[in-house]
Design brief:
The structure holds two protein chains of two kinds.
Chain A (H helix, E strand, L loop, with lengths): L1 H7 L12 E6 L8 H9 L26 E12 L2 E12 L7 H5 L5 E3 L5 E3 L10 H4 L6 E2 L11 E2 L5 H5 L5 H5 L5 E5 H17 L6 E3 L7 H4 L4 E5 L16 H28 L3
Parallel strand pairs in A: 1-10
Antiparallel strand pairs in A: 1-8, 2-3, 4-5, 6-7, 9-10
Chain B lengths: L20 H25 L2 H18 L2 H7 L19 H26 L5 H7 L4 H24 L4 H4 L4 H23 L4 H29 L4 H4 L4 H23 L4 H34 L2 H7 L3
The chains are: A alpha+beta, B mainly alpha.
Chain lengths: 281, 312
């Protein structure tokens, strides 16, 4: 009967799942060359963002968006150390985190956002109707809708696909392939996590006391959205990179929200019924 | 650099892409649902006068729902793909639940309005015969449940995001529900005042509307307290006037006063006061949706509010 239903609804069998793929972005190795941004734009044929100058260091991209799926941050820090002024420059190539519990995917009303066989989060462009709900749902501000006046896949939601088309052919995603310092590492998530722990140990041993991992299963950032399949080694607090301490998954509070809404509705119905009944006496 | 500082002053989350169609739809859908629920309660529990006056609410519900689907569809990036919302049933997504609820509620509201039109002699011939097939009580019960869902999901939908103004407090769904019920019952009051219903009926409708307004004020207070600093884009600046004067003052306080005055008057003065109160409640409901919706866009760019929302 289930087979008949599937035939009737023209449902496809999901593809057999493969090992989870992801990125380990080691910001201690990033030199801010932006090769990843360019490679991503070229492979995915994304239009340019224009020639806006932000005035904030060498970052004229600003943020991830519908047509920007890698973004290199330039964080300039000055710290007083006794009488000396210490300066440092943190660079970080930001990307969609491909959360284990993805807020965008849960918000999607059409089923356009799906989890692929590589355990990544992907927008099916032929399904998305551009409702825009995934945009404010994402706690990292990654996914966005293309404006109606754009020349590129108008009106639908876009974000990093983890180069789904390249993964299909066993190829490395364009950004990781182009990274000259191996700051962006691609591979099986489990193996990348091991590598990250080892790298963190090395950095700590060298005295990088503020180094930390962001998006590992044991981190507080994974409490709601789960482990991030694109995770990071950071050299400062997450907030310095505009990353939330505990990214919120809207589903966690939804029952309580509906509860308050229902309570008001039931309260109104009871009062109204009492008042109307009073008129029958 | 100081402790809490983020990456320049860049927002953490993306700005919502929705435009004016969304608050307009929330307002009309909520008001239509509120009118339907009030009308159904009058049928189930009211006197003959109340039932007659209340039934006009079915017309209002149907009329308010007419622009809802076009507004919801018009806001999509790809409007021609609206039906993709209905290719799956996914109540986990409030957007999907809302699309299904509107799809199911609209025909019920129209069917019940049609059967009321037949009762009052507005419909004749085969259409009148067709409306006989509408099971009234069942339509009222199912429509009320769907109507309450339609009135309540919109605030939950905005709350189920990472926009601090919408998400910090868990009460926004309740706020929108209260606003839908006060404006919906106000629409019924307005009709009753205009059609010269008995003063006792007008009195009861005003009492119900005032109860909803009081509930609305209470839950708005709770919402603002819970939101704390995250409510600043709403309570100060550009949206302070539409919120305080429009939604709170005109939408709840003024109607409470007008109804209170009206109860001591008779005849035309009373009807005029009730009608004025009802119009204020309905307009205030639009001010509430619009100001919270637009202030949410400002809130999405508030980096420190986003960090506050994600505090361990």
């Amino acid at each position: 009967m289930i087979d008949g239903y599937k035939r009737l609804m023209n449902l496809e069998e999901p593809l057999p799942s493969k090992k989870a793929k992801g990125f380990f972005t080691d910001t201690s190795l990033c030199i801010g060359c932006k090769a990843c941004e360019v490679a991503c734009k070229q492979w995915n044929q994304l239009p340019a963002d224009g020639f806006a100058i932000t005035g904030n260091s060498y970052d004229n991209t600003g943020h991830l968006g519908a047509t920007t799926w890698r973004h290199v941050q330039f964080i300039e820090q000055a710290k007083a150390n006794g009488s000396r002024q210490e300066q440092r420059w943190l660079m970080m190539s930001d990307v969609c985190k491909h959360c284990a519990n993805a807020a965008c995917l849960e918000a999607c009303p059409t089923g356009a956002l799906v989890r692929t066989e590589f355990d990544t989060v992907y927008v099916q462009q032929d399904i998305c109707n551009g409702c825009g709900f995934c945009v404010p749902a994402c706690p990292f501000g990654v996914i966005d809708r293309v404006p109606k006046e754009s020349t590129f896949e108008v009106g639908t939601a876009h974000k990093c696909t983890l180069c789904y088309d390249r993964l299909k052919d066993d190829m490395t995603p364009a950004c990781a392939k182009s990274c000259p310092t191996a700051s962006i590492q691609f591979g099986d998530v489990e193996e990348l996590q091991q590598r990250a722990r080892q790298r963190l140990g090395e950095l700590k041993a060298r005295g990088e006391s503020t180094a930390r991992l962001y998006g590992m299963p044991e981190g507080q950032e994974a409490v709601e959205v789960g482990p991030l399949h694109a995770f990071f080694l950071l050299l400062d607090k997450p907030q310095a990179y505009n990353l939330p301490d505990v990214p919120r998954l809207p589903r966690k509070t939804m029952a309580e929200r509906y509860g308050w809404s229902a309570a008001v509705g039931v309260g109104f119905a009871m009062i109204a019924a009492l008042v109307f009944r009073g008129g029958r006496r | 650099m100081s402790e809490a500082q983020g990456y320049y002053d860049y927002p953490v989350v993306r700005r919502p892409v929705w435009t004016w169609e969304v608050p307009a739809y929330f307002w009309l859908g909520g008001m239509g649902a509120g009118a339907f629920v009030t009308a159904s309660l009058a049928q189930a529990t009211g006197s003959a006068d109340d039932r007659r006056a209340g039934a006009e609410g079915f017309y209002l519900a149907a009329a308010a729902l007419v622009p809802c689907a076009p507004l919801l569809i018009g806001d999509l990036g790809r409007p021609e793909r609206f039906h993709h919302m209905l290719r799956i049933f996914k109540p986990l997504s409030p957007m999907n639940l809302g699309a299904w609820t509107l799809t199911a509620f609209t025909p019920l509201a129209f069917a019940r309005a049609a059967s009321h039109a037949a009762d009052t002699g507005l419909l004749h011939g085969p259409i009148r015969a067709l409306t006989r097939l509408v099971p009234r009580r069942l339509t009222e019960l199912a429509g009320s449940l769907l109507g309450l869902t339609l009135a309540g999901y919109s605030g939950v939908l905005l709350g189920a995001t990472n926009v601090p103004l919408w998400a910090k407090s868990k009460l926004l769904g309740g706020v929108f529900m209260a606003s839908a019920l006060s404006s919906g019952s106000a629409a019924v009051t307005l009709q009753a005042a205009g059609r010269g219903s008995p003063e006792a009926t007008l009195h009861r409708l005003a009492t119900i509307e005032s109860a909803a307004s009081l509930g609305e004020l209470a839950i708005i207070t709770g919402y603002l307290v819970q939101s704390g600093k995250a409510a600043r884009p709403l309570t100060t600046g550009r949206f302070a006037a539409p919120f305080w004067l429009g939604a709170v003052g005109m939408g709840a306080l003024l109607p409470l006063l007008l109804h209170r005055f009206g109860m001591r008057r008779h005849g035309r003065t009373r009807r005029s006061l009730s009608a004025a109160a009802a119009v204020c409640t309905m307009a205030g409901s639009l001010a509430l949706r619009w100001s919270i919706f637009e202030a949410g866009k400002v809130s999405s760019e508030d980096q420190s509010a986003s960090f506050e929302l994600s505090k361990a």
